[in-house]
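pasting for ref. prot 1 ->
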Amino acid sequence: MAEPSWIFDSAYSHYRSEVAGRADLIVCLDYRRWVSLARLVRRSVRRVLSREAVCNGNVETWGTLFSADSILRWHATSFAGKRERIRALADAYGPRKVLRFRSARRAQLWLEGVNASGRIPWP
C-alpha cells in the first residue's frame, strides 16, 4: 500500500479494514450464487484435466476437488458471508468509493470504459 497504485484481493481478509480505508476505489463482483458456482466448477474441472497450477504451485485433483477442504465446499460455506461483507463495505463507504457489480456484463462494460478513456467511469 506504500505504492501510488495497487490492487488488493479480498482473499487476504485480515488486511481488509486497513486496505479499505486507504483505497480510492473498491470494486465488488457480487454475482448471483449460481453464476459464481458455475464459473468455479468450470475453472476447477479445467484445472484438474490440464494439471494447471493454481497458486503456490498447487495442482487441483479430483480428490481435492471433493475433499473436506474443497474449493467447492468453501464456496458453499463462504458465499453468504462474502455478500454481507460487500454490503457492509457499500454501507460504510458509499457509492462513490464502492462499485458493486451484480452482473458480468455490467462489469465488462465498466472495464471497457476504463480501458477506452483511461479514467474510472462511475456507473
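and prot 2 ->
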Amino acid sequence: MATASARTSESAAGQDRLFAALANGTRREVLRLLREAGPQPVQAIADRFDMARPSLSEHLKVLREAGLVSEERAGRQRIYRLEAAPLADVQDWLHPYERFWRQKLMGLGDVLDSMPDDDPS
C-alpha cells in the first residue's frame, strides 16, 4: 500500500513529465497535428518535420511517457493518437494564474475608465 507521501511524489513526477513534454515546441506541434488531423501513422507525422526519424521517435516516446499520446499497432504501422486527459492537469495548474491576471486586467480597466478621455480639439 502506497503512503500519502509516495503518492504525492508520484503525482509530482507525473506532473513534471507532463510539463517537460509540453516545454518542447516540436512536441507541442505533434500534439497540434494530432488534435487537428486525428490519429496518424508515425510516417505521416515524420513527413511533417525536418528531422531524422530517430529524433522524432524520441519526441513521441516523451509524449507517450507523459500520457499525452497513445500508440497502436496496425500491421507494420504504428498509429499515434492524442490523449488529452492529462491536459486537464495543466488547466488546473494554470487556473489560479488565469484568475490572477483577470483581476489585474479588471483593475487596469477600472483605472482606464476613471481617466478623462483625451480631447482631440
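Residues 87-114 form the longest helix (28 residues).
The first strand starts at residue 40 and ends at 41.
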